[in-house]
Each structure stands twice: as structure tokens, then as C-alpha cells.
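We emphasize that the prediction below concerns an isolated chain of 365 residues; any contacts that depend on oligomerization or on bound cofactors are therefore not represented. The input was used exactly as deposited, without trimming of termini.
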Amino acid sequence: MIIGIPKERRPYEYRVGLHPAGVHLFAQREHIVYVERGAGVGAGFSDDDYAQAGGIIAYSEEEVLRRADLVLKFARPLQEELDVLREGQALAGFLHLEAAREDKLRVILDKKITAIAYEKIQDVDGYRPVLAPMSRLGGQIVPQVAARLMQNDFGGRGILLGGMVGVPAPEVVIIGAGSVGGTAAGVFAALGAHVTVLDIDMRRLQELQASCAKPLVTMFSTAYNIARACSYADVLIGAVYVPGERSPVVVTREMVSRMKRRAVIIDMAIDTGGCIETSRPTSHGAPTYIDEGVIHCCVPNLPGVLGRTGTYTLFNAAYPYLAAIAELGLDGALKQLPALERGIDTFRGEVRHLRRLVSLRSAEE
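Result of the prediction step, given as a C-alpha cell string:
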């Protein structure tokens, strides 16, 4: 199989679809891997690293995209990338096609692209083996960002995340106890913060409280409890995720207006629309703004600046599925791995697991 690794072109995206060690594994099995020049620079991988691993360095994006049977990306594709793809190719990445523009969806359908959405690969028990470790990475970076934003030089209230002897620990409120929120809760608590976690899934709250080495406060997520928790939060983390849907808004502007001045909000649900009414997308270049006197950080795909760690994390999770596609072909891999089949948004022009595309096709027919 011919595999293509293009350079990611979204601003502040430093990760890459495959690292040199992964190229070596495919090359050993006599698969051909084209790597666009400079694709791995953000993650610390040189062209020589890829060449020594058995990759072929290509000098244009078009060469990589047109030659490949399987294109491995990290972030969702840009329109110009889709325009270059040829008919019948397979494309894998965190595609988030629910949020894509209609013109992108039409290109994917018209070109009969097989779209493999990493975020939708799902085991029978509901576990998402590729998304989950990336979500945990997101949870790991949240305390790092929050600690910086609480500093005076970043506009914060001058609070140390871990606290000091004789000084009350900061109050951290996390809405959503999934992979992002649960991981963040554990890190915040380990650093010494006083952590409150809200969720509608009592079983998940029980599991989180039992697994965390440090004490946590858990609350059932109702509008009343959210408003009460927001009122005392030094840091508020939005981590509400509903697979395949826009995140519901659970924190209203009124709740934000009653928060402490210069408190910090980090909306990790901004990739799927945000779960806080005052949230709007920002970037790593200008990550924050102030609304209702509260610092907001709403960077979509916040871990994009963890180029090296993110690239390794993706490969560890996705390799079994990619290896199966390379060895068995797409049809054989889908028969052998039901979890992979659940990650297929479109299959050679046929809609599979994307409700928005189902609606689009229905409207056309």
C-alpha cells in the first residue's frame, strides 16, 4: 500500500500523522510511505529521520496526496487538501466532519473518499481507543495552561495552582467527568488544588472519586449546582462532550457574570461548539479574552502545541487499525475490526456513520 504523510497546515498545529518509527514499521512490511518535506519539523522529526526510516521525501503536498492510497493526517483537512485528493482514496485523521462546511462534505462524497474518523473508532463497550488517549492528553495540558493564566503577568489573580502552607488552595471546578475532565481533575488535585467535578453520570463520578489519589468533591450536574460551583471557582473547566453532536451550553452568561473577577475559564468543548455561553474560539497566538470580567481561553484543539507527545500518542493508539488496513486492505480490515468500521464516516461515496451526511444525501435525493 502507498501511504502519504502531508504537512499539517492549520495554524499552531505541530503534530504530524506518522512519526519516523511508524514509517519504519510500514517500510519493513514493504509498504511505500511518502512524507512531505518538513512534515515532522513541528514534532522534532527531520526529513533525514524519515528518509533513514525508509520514507520517501516528497517536495510538494500535491505529490503526497495524489500518490497515496491512504492519507494519514492529524487535524481535519483544509478545503485545498480535499481538492487535491483523487477519487477513491482513504483519508484518516481527527476529521470532525459534523462541524465541516457543506462544500467539504460534498467533495468527500463526490470523490468517493473513504473518511476514517479517529474520534469515532469505537469498541463494542463504547470505549474509543484512539480518541481516549488524546483526550487524556488534553486533560494533562489543562492544568499547565491554567497555572500560567492565573499568574498576574497573564492577567490572572496571582494564585499559585498548588497553594502554600497557610494559604487556601485554589478552587477548580470541572464540568464533565469524561477523559478530559477526569484526567484534569486528577492532575489538579495532585498539585494541591481543591477540585469539584460535576457530571450527569453518577457511575462515572463514583469511578473518578475511587480512582483519584487525592480527595475530590463530586456533584450531580444540574443548573443549580453548576451556578453554585461557578460562584466560587478560581478556575472553571468546560469538558462536556456528546459524541457526534454539538456540546450543550451548560454555563450561562449570568453564571459567568457572578464569577470572581479575573477568574479563569478554559472551555475544552470549544472544538464542538463550546459548553459555556460566553465562549468563542481563540488561538494559540491570541489565546485569551475577557468577558464579564473573567479570563476565557477557548483554543480549539489545545494540545496541538504538544507536537512530539501528541504524535507519539496518536501512533500508539491508531497503529493497530492502520496496520490492519495496510496488510488486509480496507475491506479486510473492516471485516476483522468492527471498532474500525464504526469510525467510517463515508465509504467510497456511501454514507456510513455521519448523521449530517445522511441528511445531506436525503436532501439531494
